[in-house]
Amino acid sequence: MSNEGNKKQFWKRNAAKVPGSIQHVYGAQHPPFDPLLHANLIKAGNRLPPATPGKPKKATTFQEFESITSDAWDVGDDDDELLAMAAKNLNIEVVMETANKVIENHSKQQERQRQDDATELERTEEDTREDVAEDEDEEEEEEEDEDVDDEEDEQVRVEKGDMTSPEVSFASQSSPYADSRLVKSKSEAPIGSPKEAAGEYAGLHRQRSLPHRPPIIPLVARMADQNTSGTPAMTEREASRLDKFKQLLAGPNTELDELRKLSWSGIPRQVRPITWKLLSGYLPANAERRESVLQRKRQEYFGFIQQYYDSRNDENHQDTYRQIHIDIPRTNPLIPLFQQASVQEIFERILFIWAIRHPASGYVQGINDLVTPFFVVYVFEYIEEEVENFDVSSLQEEALRNIEADSFWCMSKLLDGIQDNYTFAQPGIQKKVKALEELVSRIDESVHRHMQQYEVEYLQFAFRWMNNLLMRELPLRCTIRLWDTYQAEPEGFSHFHLYVCAAFLVRWRKEILEEGDFQGLMILLQNLPTMHWGNEEVSVLLAEAYRLKFAFADAPNHYKR
Prior knowledge:
Number of helices: 22
């Protein structure tokens, strides 16, 4: 028998389960307690009524037995009571009321902004109408004065024998809407009625009076170079660079060192496919051997397809294939090109064959992104228009096969240099993130200390920078420009990428230092505003990275404390 103390505390013991003790029944009639569904039942006054003194009557049902023995449970330790208290603190009505207030305030601000814009527009139009009316009055007065002067001038010209043509006299008249530049011929003079000119004036006045708004740029900006297709013609410098590339590539043996020097500042779109194949080591420098090498490598790739691709549903490989199949639709989901079924099938084959041939790492999430720049560049080899909405099924089957094989081999060459990023525990990435932290601590101590102050670990944001080579941080057109330089740099994708990441982080020092908590810093670092970046911003970033490399690469102890 237990002692007297144990008898008294039997029902209130903190044991998980006691043999014979009453437990809650969870079934169709007694579902688990949900504080959100039962929030309206949880009120301040909703408490069990105090037990009435006196001898309890005999229980006939389980519910009666439970109510009679309600004092047997320790209310303080009851999970349902804890959930009820939490639900009370986060009352659903309070949450909804707060949310409605936020939405209402936001709507009021938007309406107020629209009203302000409308008022400003009306005021501008009134000012414009007044200006136009004043100008018309001045015009009428000037015309009256000019008529009198013309009569006198005509009389003088007739007397002097001056036969000036009416065209010259028309051109010499001043117009209140004419600009101050020199006009070479009357075809360049402003043409149109005063009303049209007044409309132009009103538009200009409105643009000056309203606050500056950035031009609307589509979410997925153009992936092509900024000097092709729909943009102004190439500058003289760009045309000269293109000629240098063509001359260098036309020789019987391409000087790869010279090609790297030219490519460092960007490769023209017209010669980028052949240049990337040469710089990656996929094609030989000797021009006579290139065609035979291309044929052999393409046949070799499709031999791998016949040999290995049918095994994707085998027990050994089905997990790899399933993960690839899941990741492919996530690859650049905002660009229609990569949502086409035929493109996704190409990517699945490329990634599965690579994983089978590299068992040390296999497929790792993030490798799927590394195919896209090669695929886009090699599609440009066969088309002139923009690629974002291009239907690849319109290409000939042979062209598609060539694009697929070339993308596979060039991606393989890239991954050969950074495979330790994707082996077990990803030691390459761990090492690079640590080096990035040490480098930033030397080049910008304020940024480094600010992130330390709010306990931001470099691995939390820079892991993706290393794993995806900044592809998730930059638009695809910028990635292609960045890879021009990576291909030209020795160990560009591994070693030089570290300095690009350091320059990229310090580029946002103002925004980083303005954030005052962990959450704000992480949101900023994972959503950096680069959607409007182009070649110019990438060139500045690369120049700064080269400066850092020049200062620290040959003296690694410089960035170690």
